[in-house]
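Let us work through a complete example step by step.
Step 1: write down the sequence.
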Amino acid sequence: MATLELYSKGANVWVPDPDAVWVSAQLLQDYRSGEKHLLLQLSNGNEVHYPVGSPSDLPPLGNPDILEGENDLTALSFLHEPAVLHNLRVRFLDYSSIYTYCGIVLVAINPYDQLPIYGEEVIDAYSGQDMADMEPHIFSVAEEAYRTMIRSGKNQSIIISGESGSGKTVSAKFTMRYFAVVGGAAQQTSVEERVLASNPIMESIGNAKTTRNDNSSRFGKYIEIGFGRKGDIIGANMRTYLLEKSRVVFQASTERNYHIFYQLCASRELPEMRSLKLDAPENFRYTNQGGEMQIPGTDDLSDLERTRNAFTILGVQPDQQMELFRILSAVLHLGNVNIQASGRSSDREDRSLAVFSKLLGVEGSQMAHWLCHRRFAVGGEMLVKPMTGQQAVEARDALAKHIYGQLFAWTVQRLNSALRAQQGRTKSFVGVLDIYGFETFERNSFEQFCINYANEKLQQQFNRHVFHLEQEEYVREELAWSRIEFSDNQQCIDLIEGQLGMFDLLDEECRMPKGSDESWVRKLYDQHLNSKPHPHFRKPRMSNSAFIVLHFADTVQYECDGFLDKNRDTVFEELINILKASFQVRCFSFFFHLSFHFFCTSIHPKHNFPAHCSFFWASQFRQSLQMLMETLNSTTPHYVRCIKPNDLKEPFLFDPKRTVQQLRACGVLETIRISAAGYPSRWTYEEFFSRYRILLRGPQSQDQAQASCRQALPQLIPDPDQYCFGKTKVFFRAGQVALLERLRAERLRVAAVIIQSQVRGWLARIRYTRILWATLTIQRYSRGALARRLALILRYTRAALVIQKTYRMMVVRQLFFMIRHATVTIQAFTRGMLERRRYRLLVAERAAVLLQATVRGWLARQAYRRVRAAVVFMQCCIRRKAARRQLLKLKSEARSVERYRELNKGMECSQLLKLTALAWPCPLSATASLSVCASDIRVDSALSLAPGLPASVLFLCVRQADCSGDQARARSLCSAAVTAMKAALKKHVSDIDMAALWLKNICLFHDLLTQHSPKQAGSAFIYFLLPALLESETIQGLSGSAVKLAVSRKRAGSDPRTVGGEAPTMASVLRELGALHTALTQQALPKTLMEQAFHQLTYLICASAFNSLLLRKDMCSWSRGLQIRYNVSVLEEWLRGRGLQAGGAVATLEPLIQAVQLLQVGKKTEADAQGIVRTCSALSSQQIVKILTLYTPHSDLDERVTLNFIRSVQGLLKGRSNSQPSQLLMDVRRVFPVIFLYSPPPVLSAEQLVIPDSLKISFLRKA
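Step 2: predict the structure and record it as tokens.
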């Protein structure tokens, strides 16, 4: 019970409600001990009087607002049902978060919608991350199981349970997909593909449509995924439990049979399926009883194609698949065999019986006879007696269920054979248990009884495991603890499986020759009501054919009709013998050997009833369940509880009644109760000191946090039983954190009042000073205005006198200037006329002289040209005659020169190669030797070589082979050289210097051959960079004073992980990047390639950090955004300082920059929303809404983002263009294309190369 002082005016409490289960209310007055009523105001504004008989009747208190939307329910201050329900509702409806932790349990609410949170980018984001650092997700549980298995070598189990339609199958599929991705085989085998291919097969033959779920698993399965020593998947194994065989012959209204039957009917027009004589599902009795032939949004024909492809992947040949389909089709035709009231098959239905007999290769007459007759042993003689019509129908349905059950078992065995580990012995495994949750219907029968019994066993194992984890935590912290009492359901389990329990009495009644359901119920009444009354067994008042069991989750009434028949699961031996004689179905050799071994025995010597099962179904199920429990107890379990939020299958619709019912049934509330019985609130001393330092007295220092906490807590909480000090944490009882929050709020309120009084006095003094200053200022300005007015009048008077004087002077000057201008103008015109006359005479004289000079020069040039042309013609004639004589002489000498060149052919090429290439002494062995040499160069030797030496040697060899004319050898050498360099690059990908060396050689080899080879090495810095970029506190003290409640606390039950060495910082990251840049520079890598390499690296950094930011709620705060922005700016400055921004390395950081800016801007007004939409141009709408949803205040000065603001932003984002990517997370596997710009290398010759002996390439020699 919480402290009574917390029930004060303004406190929030929860009161029961018939519709919403719990509603929030606020206290309007303080509660005093002894009062009989509480005055409350409900959330709708109504005031009510809540009756309080005693302090134990007080309503549950609400948690502080800062804890609203917590991703771990055990972190809540008050642990009770309404707090759990409200937190799940807030996360599901307001934050669209379907996953929530509850200690070691992951609560998954089915959204009935497709969410973009399961892509490969999400898998990459969760891979290698700690469970406590990330937002709740099914991938987080899978990662925890996988890493724990790798680290400790112990087997793991993931137990997924829930009602039908709650999403168990989907959760199991995503878990297996996660293992297939992170545990990929080293040799890229098809093991992961085969593991995933088992899902569509098991869904087709084991899933069906029910009233609650369109794809309900009608069986339980436990899949063991085996891993090798390197953590890669090497095999798998599947175990199934309690297949609902009765669905084969009967379906309730609006339900369907198993999917495979409708898939076969939909494919009846395919050529290979025509021999099966199938028809529409409306025409088969086994598929038309529910009235639902089609599921909206599904295509049975395409589903069958997917099932057949899965069979092919698992190695089932097409002929074997057709045998399976033939058996399934025979089951459908068997259901159409009409049985008359006399126990004989009708002639009208001979066609169905004939098709059934033909498909299975049995005699139709024998099958018709033994469907309507049974054999008895009387006095050592065998008698044949006809059965009634009802008995014959039951025999037909029993045969159909038996065939389908054995076909299901054969399929599981075949899948296990295909999934069995082939590479070696499995080191460890992770088991995924997809099992039915607790079920209760209006009419409950044998199947519900077995299902609820299995849930009783699983709940007991769950309770004990949770209790064990609590004890481990207390022992690890060296607490003095007392045993926690929790509800153990061992009595209910003993009622079912104990000595003379319900299963024993059921098996005993099945062995009786005239046993019946009524007699079995009477034995239950005698044993558990009359003889030894059992607290978990009751009898209904109005029925003698039913019984009531008080399960841990609910009280269930079972109807006894059909218990004995379903437990016997009887199939007559004669029908089995007929099927064993079939010769057309090759898989029957195993099929009926298994069936006969388990289900048929010889006739009992003391009873005259036919041979039937001595190993009853309930006993089989109990033994298989016991084996499952032993397996689970030998592993480390991880729990996933799936919740169905509504029965209408509507997306994001929350029904509190259905949710609370499932929370009670799946054990989530039991986890809360066990946690609340001990110390549910756990803080490290540093967290407690940061949050409540204002309550501490004396000197305060972060280094003395533990001592300060130990000294201050006894004064804050007088009752020492309400808290306990551990080695690294301080533990609190339920409600004590809320008490501390109240004390902290009161201390802050008192401090605020003092600050307000001081501020108000300061403001009053400031106001008085301003009024006094304003008065003096007004006086000063008034006197100044009067003085300025007098001065203005004086200035106007003086100005008038000056204007008059100036005007008179201007008039006289204008007259003077006009007379002078007229005189000057007359003089100018006269002088100009005289000068123009003299100029005309001079021009005429000059033109005559120039004309004479031009004519004389033209005549002289004409004479010179005639003389020069005559001289040139004479020279040409003489030279042509000399040339003819020289040509005749050269023709006579041509024959001797051609012979000389023929005898010495090849000498010029040899001389050229001697200067520019290397000779090729051996035909083919040199190619392999050169490749091995390229890939096996030692690191120390390689780094001492001249830049580009290996590429130069390889190119000269290729060029020599090409010059020799051997094209095949040239192509072989070129291919071997490229392959060897790629292998060397992949071999040394983790070595920065060697990676830079081979990147340089690939680039140079490309330039020499003018070819393209875009292979690049990946980044090895991601896991090192992320903590430094997101968590490194370069700005010291920024987050020390703003620690959120329950920040960075490890979840209960998670394994403690020791961190080796110091946390990475931005300085260490820049050192690593500097080492990479130095290695690339030393190898003289071209600037364009270096820019592209850092462009790819910065994109990986940005994508990984951005995805981690979206998946970690503790990162979405103002202080953390400021810190990340500073770290990114440091990285930007480093890139710009080395001139790498031209290749786009800085531009790729824009999404991360805008994300952290979104954390820092205001998020309240409409203007803020418009600013966010304008600023975050590189983020998609989903990413912006996700960051706003995850934003968490880390101080009392900050507030959460309201839903109205988020909706306002969403409305503005709808009008934005759709150029942004639609996915939530960035694709960390994106690889930018590499562009090799061709730059002609210098002329290469063999004499320029200095080849050290350490390379061991003596097989090459200089020609």
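Step 3: interpret the result. The first strand starts at residue 12 and ends at 17.
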